Amino acid sequence: MTENANLAGGGTHVDTGELATAIGSAEQNQLEGPLLLREPADGTPEPVTTAAELAAVIAGIGAASGPLAVDAERASGYRYSQRAYLVQLRREGFGTVLIDPIALPDLRELNDALGDTEWILHAASQDLACLAEVGLHPKRLFDTELAGRLLGSERVALGTMVEQHLGVRLEKGHSAADWSTRPLPHDWLVYAALDVELLIPLRAALLARLREAGKLDWAEQEFEAARLAPAPPPRVDPWRRTSGIHGIRNRRQLAAVRALWYSRDELATRRDIAPGRLLPDAAIIDAARRNPADQSELARLSIFAGPRQRRDGPRWFAALEEARALAEDELPPVTSIALDAIPPAARWRERAPEAAVRLTACREVVAALAETHQVLAQNLMPADIVRRFAWQSPPPATESSVAAELTALGARRWQTALVAPPLAVALAAATAPDVAADDRIQR
């Protein structure tokens, strides 16, 4: 790569060797305009695809020092699975490596070589599952997105944070690409390498700010919780998330939506294609509403007239026939029956006024603390924990009982320590017998 080819900003150009100095002057960069990083400073490597290449990577990256920058690319919107189609790693003393996990699906030896090295990921919850599928499991984690949220940032995209904290703008543009494509185009590889290029200096900047704000312990608890988080349970009635279903109130039509959704999901799983690319949600809703009498009538519907839909037409019509054959007591209810039986908060005032009082008190406490400590309210105390606590927490509340209940619901130690004392006071005041319920709810 020629000098000055990859980094530019504010009308000036800097040599790739000056990148560290440029990053170290982030405040000055922001005054003059962010530097634009078009390519990695050391160039863009080709993906590692052979066992011999991987062995060299294991030896080299294992001998390097410091934290490890990690990212992965999936093919969301193109493939059904959420597997990794590219893994990007960077470590000081070794540089950047791109690994093709399709050619090399078992990276456990690499994981062993890394030992207890701290991994740096941005929005780790999005990538840890697909990394685990190929044998990569961090022993320690630093999540740059979570760090930004704890510092009160509402805009926590990687590019935004790099620009804010390092004064560098990344050349982006392929986040929605089909990463299952082979061979991967060079400009996609540039994009992938840039995703880990600045994670190490970004971690250093965020670490300093967390220490300065007294939030490092908070961050460490959040990082560990993210690292150990279990896979989310399967959704109840996932077919109810079909776009446009809110307009359908007929139970027989809902049965048709359900049958088409599950038929599409089975086919998408088998072909490893994103469901919406096989049959759009709009087509499912249209077929459920129109209830075609035979396959030829189904084929006359606009979306079903295409060559792909004609090929799979018998499948879709069979699903509709299955729904038509159901007895009345086999039809789905108009609304889903939630497993936790907690109604939407908007209905609490009528159905459970005391719970509505508690919810108002909880939200006020969390909002006030979030403003005081300059952290996003959702990260100070997740909304689902607040909702569950308010629904089931009976008065009178003491600091110890509030802390115990929040902990049982999944709150971290730092969250409970901050929220429990003022929340106990607020709940005691909000549930005082001399205060009218309507006044407490409206306050």
Describe it:
This protein has three domains: 7-228, 2-Layer Sandwich (Nucleotidyltransferase, domain 5); 238-330, HRDC domain (DNA polymerase, domain 1); 345-442, HRDC domain (DNA polymerase, domain 1, Orthogonal Bundle). Helices cover 51% and strands 8% of the residues. The chain is built from 23 helices and nine strands. Strands 6-5-4-7-8 form a five-stranded mixed sheet, sandwiched between helices. Strand 1 (7-9) and strand 2 (12-13) form a beta hairpin. The longest helix has 21 residues, at 251-271. The radius of gyration is 26 Å and the shape is flat. The termini are far apart.
Strand and helix map with partners:
Blueprint: E1 7-9, E2 12-13, H1 19-24, H2 26-32, E3 35-37, H3 51-63, E4 68-73, E5 86-91, E6 95-99, H4 108-114, E7 118-121, H5 128-133, E8 140-143, H6 144-150, H7 158-166, E9 168-170, H8 186-197, H9 199-213, H10 216-228, H11 251-271, H12 275-278, H13 281-290, H14 295-299, H15 307-311, H16 313-324, H17 348-351, H18 353-373, H19 377-380, H20 383-392, H21 399-408, H22 413-430, H23 437-442
Parallel strand pairs: 3-9, 4-7, 7-8
Antiparallel strand pairs: 1-2, 1-3, 4-5, 5-6
